[in-house]
């Protein structure tokens, strides 16, 4: 079992070989708000990405997919990349043919500044949909961001991709290559993300950018990314909506072990790197759920005893998406009936008499029936920042964990009033 | 095309052969709140029902299904019934074996009072789950309700089944049997329903009871009911949750045409009766959506141009369930991006460049792109009690209509504070 060391203040530039910056380029009116992030590698990197499956996907999603098409035009997407450029404020979604040209131009401007091919630039946008993306802020902003980019620039980049997020989200870990075939080498995986409504089609999106200095081929990096996304970003939900612009990309520089042979699947180093990606992505995902719009609590839904992985996911997802469950938690109500009813309509196979439910570690349902619990103790436990819901369906051995947040008056205020 | 006449103040006792009453029996603490409804037929009736598919279904759902098992143990459920008894305040869900016994006893007490078999009584409960149902209120309440039951009692029965509903829901129509093979006969279909969160597992449920005086066999009545439910109660959603207790039952007395041969499928009379059921159920369903918890607007989502019926339903349902769409309407924001993004993630097949969207009759999206509209005019139209969303996916000829409501601060208040 590899030991991971969390890097204090670490993020997308913690791994060797990467620089970043976040600046105000002019997509937003407020001059104090950063709205352009640039992550640039010293050398071309192995790269991979996962993207929204929404039919109304944005232009930058289409272009980034094109640029990562070494594996063909479908998923998985991987290839080579040197830079990632992101703007916030305008999503460049529902913008038709001009939108595609703007996303291509965004890559071209960045490629010219960095000195790489257009295809080596990945692009992402987040913000209002249906508006055209101006190019002038890139023409002035990208050279400025490149000039400012540094190994300390991760924090400013993380800030530049924010929309309704209340704080930037960064996480990084390192681990030793000793006993993994890389004696004396320290590997790092770090990243940043944004997203608080899951989706905001209107100010769209979750975006995550993860970097590592481990040496690995793009096709294998793609597998590691997909496995990590499957247990992290794909397991969070704020309001059941998924975005037109969701984008998660990763770059691997290999700079921690220059000249070393790349990490191969099936090796201890691969397993350690895959676990590090899960660690980073899971922590970023939890931060996103906890920062859900209007959220006052992070909610962790753990479903065990499912007959299949799909059943575990269906039950956990239905519980995590239930407005009734989420408003109950907001109201500090250990209301297991709403949890049971959500599981019951999820499509997962089980019998009600086999179900156990704990809320915040307190048994509230056994054998499908109410268990008396101390209401005062429940109210005390509701003061914690994280609320655990544990459901055992009693139908098998599969399990999963999903993260969401509670549903507050502020969610309605934020989303009822956003555009006006 | 049969002409239907809406019966002013009509409801579950508009059809010949039915009496009803709603009284305070003691399930609720407040003496002024009616909490027991009884609908009783003069003679045994053809009967049919549809019930929740939630695994955590309540005891009365299980017992009513048993009592309507002439078609076998699965769906469809039909048979013979004489009375329907409903209590509000306690759902008798998640109550195990004792709960089943209480539901059976509820039927037995009613059967003894009415003078029929236990199997001829259908039962339904709505209210808090996980609590045991007391029997004493039935022992005193059912005889009292039977004594009070009258052809004018539909309104009090409709009031007795309410939980968070802000007003009772009743609807009835009549139509002439002339030219349908029943010269000089007037047929009536009427009903009542409750439900405003869709579901409230906690005070669970949608309940609908529809009666008719047309003569028809139970198996055919079952088909008519299922067809009507498919375009009405199954097309409304308040918060995507479905209940442990959802119940819709219907009784046909034949009293409008005593001694006549029953209406057979394929005849004009059958088509007219089926259309009358759709008319009554659709109007009850719209009332329920408009009375969604915290709702300020009824929202009608019409999806056309879908490749399949399933695609039309998926797109309409995803739009109608989207918290972002519903909060936008609450905020009077003609935000088509949220509608498009919901359709895009619904699983329905289409291309974004083929999509048209109108909100309140105003074109806001054509060919997947923004259409400029008059914001002041939009704000004026948002004053209407019903907001129409029309989406054409441009992918085929299938269509559907779904009803929901907007998502307000009051929804959070009602559901965050309910149990406390």
Automatic annotation (TrEMBL), chains A, B:
The record marks 204-205 as: Cleavage. Keywords: Acyltransferase, Amino-acid biosynthesis, Arginine biosynthesis, Autocatalytic cleavage, Cytoplasm, Multifunctional enzyme, Transferase. It catalyses: N(2)-acetyl-L-ornithine + L-glutamate = N-acetyl-L-glutamate + L-ornithine; L-glutamate + acetyl-CoA = N-acetyl-L-glutamate + CoA + H(+). Its EC number is 2.3.1.35, 2.3.1.1. InterPro entries: Arg_biosynth_ArgJ (IPR002813), ArgJ-like_dom_sf (IPR016117), ArgJ_beta_C (IPR042195). One of its GO terms (molecular function) is L-glutamate N-acetyltransferase activity. Gene3D superfamilies: ArgJ beta chain, C-terminal domain, L-amino peptidase D-ALA esterase/amidase. Pathway: Amino-acid biosynthesis; L-arginine biosynthesis; L-ornithine and N-acetyl-L-glutamate from L-glutamate and N(2)-acetyl-L-ornithine (cyclic): step 1/1; Amino-acid biosynthesis; L-arginine biosynthesis; N(2)-acetyl-L-ornithine from L-glutamate: step 1/4. Pfam families: ArgJ. GO terms for cellular component: cytoplasm. The keyword Acyltransferase applies. The keyword Nuclease does not apply. Belongs to the ArgJ family. The record marks 126-127 as: Involved in the stabilization of negative charge on the oxyanion by the formation of the oxyanion hole. Catalyzes two activities which are involved in the cyclic version of arginine biosynthesis: the synthesis of N-acetylglutamate from glutamate and acetyl-CoA as the acetyl donor, and of ornithine by transacetylation between N(2)-acetylornithine and glutamate. It is found in: Cytoplasm. GO terms for biological process: L-arginine biosynthetic process; ornithine biosynthetic process. Heterotetramer of two alpha and two beta chains. This is Arginine biosynthesis bifunctional protein ArgJ. NCBIfam families: ArgJ, PRK05388.1. The active site is at residue 205. Substrate binds at residues 163, 194, 205, 293, 415, 420. It comes from Ellagibacter isourolithinifaciens. Its main location: cytoplasm.
């Amino acid at each position: 079992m590899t030991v991971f060391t969390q890097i204090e203040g670490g993020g997308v530039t913690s791994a060797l070989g990467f620089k970043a910056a976040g600046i105000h380029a002019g997509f937003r009116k407020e001059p104090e708000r950063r709205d352009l992030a640039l992550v640039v590698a010293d050398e071309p990197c192995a790269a991979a990405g996962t993207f929204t499956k929404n039919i109304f996907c944005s232009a930058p999603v289409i272009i980034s997919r094109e640029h990562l098409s070494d594996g063909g035009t479908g998923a998985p997407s991987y290839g080579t990349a040197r830079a990632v450029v992101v703007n916030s404020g305008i999503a460049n979604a529902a913008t038709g043919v001009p939108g595609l040209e703007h996303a291509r131009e965004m890559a071209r401007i960045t490629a010219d500044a960095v000195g790489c091919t257009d295809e080596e630039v990945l692009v992402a946008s987040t913000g209002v949909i249906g508006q055209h993306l101006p190019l002038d802020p890139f023409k002035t902003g990208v050279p400025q961001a490149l000039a400012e980019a540094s190994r300390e620039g991760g924090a400013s980049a993380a800030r530049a991709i924010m929309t309704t997020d209340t704080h930037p989200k960064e996480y990084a870990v390192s681990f030793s290559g000793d006993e993994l075939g890389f004696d004396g080498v320290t590997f790092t995986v770090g990243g940043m993300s944004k997203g608080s409504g899951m989706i905001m089609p209107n100010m769209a999106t979750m975006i995550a950018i993860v970097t590592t200095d481990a040496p690995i081929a793009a096709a294998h990096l793609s597998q590691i990314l997909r496995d990590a996304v499957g247990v992290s970003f794909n397991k969070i939900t704020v309001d059941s909506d998924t975005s037109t612009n969701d984008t998660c990309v990763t770059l691997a520089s290999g700079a921690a072990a220059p000249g070393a042979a790349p990490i191969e699947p099936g090796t201890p180093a691969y397993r350690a790197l895959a676990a590090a990606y899960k660690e980073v992505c899971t922590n970023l995902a939890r931060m996103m759920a906890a920062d859900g719009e209007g959220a006052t609590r992070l909610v962790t839904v753990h479903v065990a005893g499912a007959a299949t992985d799909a059943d575990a996911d269906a039950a956990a997802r239905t519980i995590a998406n239930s407005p009734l469950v989420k408003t109950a938690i907001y109201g500090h109500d250990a209301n297991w009936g709403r949890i049971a009813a959500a599981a019951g309509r999820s499509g997962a196979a089980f019998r009600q008499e086999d179900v156990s439910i704990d809320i915040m570690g307190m048994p509230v349902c056994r054998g499908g029936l109410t268990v008396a619990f101390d209401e005062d103790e429940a109210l005390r436990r509701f003061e914690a920042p994280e609320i655990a819901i544990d459901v055992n369906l009693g139908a098998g051995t599969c399990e999963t964990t999903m993260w969401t947040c509670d549903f507050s008056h502020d969610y309605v205020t934020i989303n009822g009033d956003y555009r006006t």
